[in-house]
Structure prediction request, 211 residues.
Amino acid sequence: MSKHFFITGTDVGVGKTVLAATLCAALDAYYWKPIQTGTMEGSDRVHVMRLAGIGAERTLDETYSFVPPVSPHLAARWAGSEIDLSRVQVPGHVASEWLFVEGTGGILVPLNEREFLLDLIIRMRLPVILAARSGGGTINHTLLSLAALHSAEVLVHGVVLIGEPNKDNRQTIEKYGHAKVIGEIPRLPNLHRTALLQVYLNYFERGAFPR
Prediction:
């Protein structure tokens, strides 16, 4: 089983970074967001370090980092550059370590004038964890995302639903999306390492990440 995973989501703000922090805390994993936009609001790497309680040595530097909180292809264009997917490669020193790579936005976010985040996922050949909202509208968004991943023959490790648990939505996504819901992250009054570790113990499938 691979120890490297790509975290993507059905939308912006769905909770990918909180999911990444949860998994990094639970598995003492490395975190990497190779393409970061919106650094004026702070990088997701810093957020994961704070939430998961991990040091900078457990994170990898961004390959591309842009200040404006916009789509990567626009941020790169405004900076006078272009994102080259061939530059996004997992460093050798984490080859045998747990690693969670966080994508930017959803799977059809453009990275340059020709390629989408989905193309990066295909290139990296990592199993995908799809973060999705648990509430209204999630069935359509999640099934569309899963359909695109399956069509591209990407291995989907599982779905994680974020928000108040919804049994009906969970069952529907598993039935029609041909993917396992491997965990849930309920609403938390306070986000910190202890709370995230408790969520992992209580809401994630025991065999999702065998150690």
In short: The domain at 13-203 is CATH 3.40.50.300 (Rossmann fold). The longest strand covers residues 99-106. Residues 122 and 152 are 8 Å apart (CA to CA). The helical segments are 16-27, 44-52, 72-78, 117-124, 138-151, 167-177, 193-203.
